[in-house]
Amino acid sequence: MNHSMESTCLRWHMTYNHVKSPAHTLCVLVTSILNGVLALPAVLLNSIVIAAILKTRHLRTPSNFLLFNMAITDCVIGLLLQPLYIVARVLEQKDLKNVYCHIGILANYLTNTLPLALMLTLTAMSIDRFLAIKLMLRYRSSVTSSRVLSLLIALWSVVLLWGLSPIGVYRETFIAFLAVVFSLCLFVTFTAYWRAFRGLRVHQARVTPINPDTNEAAVCINVRKYHRSFTTMFCVFLLQLIFYIPDICCKILQLTYGASAALSVAIVVADTFVFLNATANPLFYFWRLRDVRRASVRVLKTCAVFKKPT
């Protein structure tokens, strides 16, 4: 039985769940509370990461600017998308279709653009790690902060305009197009990381065994630094897959088989799992990236809230 219908609002096509099962109602209630609780730490933690990178000179590197872009995306999720999602789900439960439709426009737009921006950023990060390992000493002169910032400006310009295009307006077309883009990004990302991994193995083979009294020791330490950076960025990529794959699978099932009561519950849970990623990402950065962690502590110490009274 189809428990949803297509709703059109100012040319936007959105799915409206007009039949609510007790399980769906309970799921909306629980996930709304969770999203309300998770939105604040998502904004605060990612804001700390953003401030740490901006205020610390040695952190303003091409790789960290890509991380900075991910933090901005996650911050927008906590600041705008999660509150809008909660309101939209509550309006849907109350059968306030007209209000739901208008709130859903902005939520739909953010849902269309933010995952695409995130995936393109992850792809850029994989290419960045590949170039860092392939170019080594030539990396700093070839991959500059200004070039990465120009890339990010172009990325957001394309993503924001794409969200307003006819592709972003029609839900089925959007999911199909996004599936193609995600597949291409996944292919490029895995290829870049695989080639980076092979490049690391070659460099490691060249510097071992080493003589501590020669320059080979410094080269070995440098390779270890690249290896840790490569591992961290690859883990960031895997972390996004863990949180996004359930949602992607649910969307594909909905597009293929249509909506159902069980699938509507699964989609609500999967959406919340995606939003949880916005809180998990900065915690992962604090754990794996020592420089970001230390800079974040300094940012907190400069905040008036955390200053000790004199």
UniProtKB/TrEMBL annotation:
InterPro entries the record matches: GPCR_Rhodpsn (IPR000276), GPCR_Rhodpsn_7TM (IPR017452)
Main location: membrane
Keywords for this protein: Cell membrane, Membrane, Transmembrane, Transmembrane helix
Subcellular location: Cell membrane
UniProt GO cellular component terms: plasma membrane
Domain G-protein coupled receptors family 1 profile span(s) in chain numbering: 45-285
PANTHER family listed in its UniProt record: G-PROTEIN COUPLED RECEPTOR (PTHR22750)
UniProt name for this protein: G-protein coupled receptors family 1 profile domain-containing protein
Species of origin: Nematostella vectensis (Starlet sea anemone)
